[in-house]
Specification:
Nucleotidyltransferase, domain 5, alpha/beta, 33% helix, 6-stranded mixed beta sheet, 5-stranded mixed beta sheet, 342 residues, globular, Dna Ligase, domain 1
C-alpha cells in the first residue's frame, strides 16, 4: 500500500490504501491531523521543523509503516496556463510547455513546470495538442521533497488539487450518477481558510478559482461559544446543522455562516457568468461539495438555495471503497493524489 497526504493550512488529510485495476481504489485508513497556525500558509511551508515533527508524530500515532507517499497542495502561488504545443515526445513537449509558461511569467526564480494533456483536440490542427501547464517555485518543491526524505518516506509525486480532483472523479459516478459529456459540474472544495471552485467538463478541469473564505470562522465561533456553555447547550462540530431552518433560530451562528455563504456565492456567480459563453450547451448542472466543511449537515441545502442550482455533498464515488463510517468528502484531494497516471 501507499499513502497520500493533502497538506492544507489548518490540517493534513492522510489516506492509506491501494489503487487496483480499472481504477478501483481501496482505502484502509483515512485520518485528519490538525496543523498549528502559521506552519503552512497558502501551500508554502513556513515552519519546516514543526511540520516535519507533525508528520512524524502522525505516522507514529496511526502506526503507518508504508513508505511510498504522494503529496497534494493548493495555493495562489501555483501558476497555471492553458497552452497549445506541438505533439511529440514527452520530454520535448515538456520543454516547449516550460518555455511557454516561463515566457508568460514575470519572474527570475527557478520554477518547476509540469503539464497534463487535454482531451480536447485543437480544431483543424491534428499536429497540435492542448495542455494545461502548472508552475511552482522550485524552492517550495524541494522543501516538500526534503520533508518526505526526513520523515523516511519515498516521494512518489507532488500533486496539485486541480489534478488530484480530476483523478478522483473522472470516469466515476458521484452519488450514484455519472457525469454526462453534455454537462458540466462545479466541484466546490470548502477548506478551512480558502475554498476552491473547479469546473469539470468532459473528463477534465477546464477552469479553477480560489475563493478567499473557508469554514475556520465557524469552528472558532463554536469553540468560543462552548467555552461559555456547558452540557447540552454546547454544540458539537460533528453534529452541527447549517440548514436554513436551524440558522433562523440561531442568529449568532447565522451571522458567521452568512459570511461563508455570501462570499462563496459571489465567487461562484462570477465563475458561472465568465463561463456562460464558453460552455454553451454544457452549462453547469450540479454543484458537488467536498472538503471538511462540506460534511456539516445542511450546508448543501443552504448553498443550493443560494446558488439556485442542484447542490450535493459528495457522499459516494464509484469504485472508491473507504472504511465504514468514514465520509469521502474530506479526502477527495488525498484520494486523487494516491492515483498515479504516469
Amino acid at each position: 500500500m501507499s499513502i497520500a497526504i493533502d497538506i492544507g493550512t489548518k490540517a493534513m488529510h492522510l489516506v492509506q490504501g491501494a489503487v487496483h485495476k480499472k481504477n478501483q481504489v481501496t482505502i484502509k485508513r483515512a485520518v485528519i491531523e490538525p496543523l498549528p497556525s502559521g506552519m503552512v500558509q497558502d501551500g508554502i511551508i513556513r515552519e519546516f521543523g514543526g511540520l516535519e515533527m507533525t508528520v512524524k508524530n502522525m505516522l507514529q500515532k496511526y502506526s503507518i509503516k508504508d513508505k511510498n507517499c504522494s503529496l497534494t497542495i493548493n495555493g495562489n502561488h501555483i501558476y497555471s496556463r492553458d497552452v497549445v504545443i506541438p505533439r511529440g515526445k514527452p520530454a520535448v513537449m515538456k520543454d516547449v510547455a516550460t518555455f511557454e509558461v516561463m515566457s508568460s511569467m514575470n519572474t527570475t526564480k527557478d520554477m518547476s513546470v509540469e503539464y497534463v494533456v487535454s482531451k480536447q483536440p485543437v480544431p483543424d490542427r491534428p499536429e497540435m495538442v492542448n495542455v494545461r501547464a502548472s508552475a511552482m517555485q522550485l524552492d517550495y518543491v524541494n522543501d516538500y521533497h526534503k520533508l518526505l526524505k526526513n520523515c523516511k518516506l519515498r516521494a512518489e509525486a507532488l500533486d496539485i488539487h486541480a489534478n488530484a480532483i480530476t483523478k478522483s472523479i473522472a470516469g466515476r459516478e458521484i452519488n450514484g450518477r455519472p457525469i454526462r459529456d453534455n454537462e458540466s459540474v462545479l466541484v466546490l472544495d470548502l477548506g478551512a481558510v480558502t475554498s476552491s471552485a473547479y469546473i469539470f467538463n468532459k473528463g477534465e478541469i477546464i477552469y479553477s478559482r480560489i475563493i478567499p473564505v473557508g469554514g475556520l470562522d465557524i469552528e472558532r465561533f463554536i469553540a468560543q461559544r462552548n467555552e461559555k456553555e456547558s452540557g447540552e447547550r454546547q454544540l458539537l462540530l460533528d453534529q452541527l446543522d447549517l440548514s436554513l431552518n436551524t440558522l433562523r433560530q440561531d442568529p449568532g451562528l447565522a451571522d458567521v455562516v452568512r459570511l461563508l455563504v455570501s462570499t462563496v456565492n459571489e465567487g461562484v456567480q462570477r465563475i458561472l457568468q465568465y463561463l456562460a459563453s464558453r460552455l454553451q450547451d454544457a452549462r453547469v448542472s450540479t454543484v458537488y461539495l467536498c472538503g471538511r466543511t462540506a460534511t456539516y449537515k445542511g450546508i448543501d441545502r443552504t448553498l443550493a438555495e443560494t446558488f439556485n442550482l442542484q447542490t450535493e455533498t459528495i457522499q459516494q464515488l464509484s469504485q472508491v471503497i473507504l472504511p465504514e463510517g468514514v465520509p469521502v468528502a474530506p479526502y477527495i484531494n488525498a484520494i486523487g493524489a494516491l492515483i498515479r497516471q504516469d
